[in-house]
Design goal:
single chain, 2 domains, about 250 residues, globular, four-stranded antiparallel beta sheet
């Protein structure tokens, strides 16, 4: 996921209005004690990572700041500046240590170093760590992450386990839309990606059933699907064989 802008506070927090829980962001300490979707061999090292994508302010030429925007001569791509996410909350992330970049040393590896070089607001992205994020053009990236007590992001283990989008190398992956397995590799980077097409997928059906639904209910008595639209205080009745809205009751 990519965020427009965020800021560092005086401690280890990165604050943004992105809605991290809704985007499925998890820190290393947000995962449940036992999660069957995560290989046991990874332990607690699968938390996501924050990538700083901002440019330095105009006129910033200090050597200790230029290292943050240095380019890999082999690929001509900017080297990522990434921090491990220890905990994720709806409105902020608690950051751990800088990941990789042995060329950045000493005080420049700390959040204080970044605060010194960048402006008040910085652009950023969040990427998975030691896993692939699976997403579809229509399905998106389903997940079970919800906002819990104190705004902390947590995995709702009561939801369908197939609501997942993290694939690990060498382990079979399956959710409601696709199933596959990726070979385990040691040379995967934060920018590694691949894509494949899936054919023969039924077209999605759609019907306008109001503005804000709180409940859907199917009844065998008449074979209709009913939706409650709390915005207009209406009960919407739908015919499923043609997927049409038949009546709206207020």
């Amino acid at each position: 996921m990519a965020g427009e802008a965020g800021r560092f506070d005086g401690s280890n927090n990165f604050i943004a209005d992105t809605g991290f829980c809704g985007a499925g962001v998890l820190g290393a300490n947000n995962f449940p004690a036992s999660d069957p979707t995560i290989p046991e061999s990874l332990g607690g090292t699968v938390g996501d990572q924050l990538i700083i994508t901002a440019d330095l302010p105009p006129g910033e030429t200090r050597t200790e700041c230029q290292v943050y925007v240095s380019v890999d001569p082999a690929t001509n791509l900017r080297l990522p500046v990434a921090f491990a996410i220890s905990e994720s909350f709806a409105d902020h992330l608690v950051l751990g240590e800088m990941i990789g970049r042995p060329d950045i040393v000493d005080a420049s590896r700390t959040l204080d170093g970044l605060r010194t070089c960048f402006g008040e607001l910085v652009s950023f992205s969040v990427r998975t760590q030691r896993s692939y994020l699976v997403g579809g053009v229509r399905s998106g990236s389903p997940h079970r992450v919800v906002e819990g007590a104190g705004g902390a992001c947590t995995v709702d283990t009561a939801q369908d386990i197939n609501l997942q989008s993290r694939a690990f190398g060498g382990v079979p992956f399956a959710n409601r839309h696709v199933a596959f397995q990726i070979s385990a590799r040691d040379d995967v980077t934060s920018t590694t990606s691949f894509a494949f097409s899936i054919g023969g997928v039924p077209l999605q059906l759609g019907a306008d059933v109001g503005q804000q639904q709180t409940r859907l209910h199917y009844t065998d008595v008449d074979g209709y699907l009913y939706a409650v639209d709390t915005a207009s205080q209406a009960l919407v009745r739908m015919q499923l064989n043609e997927f049409l809205v038949l009546n709206t009751f207020r």
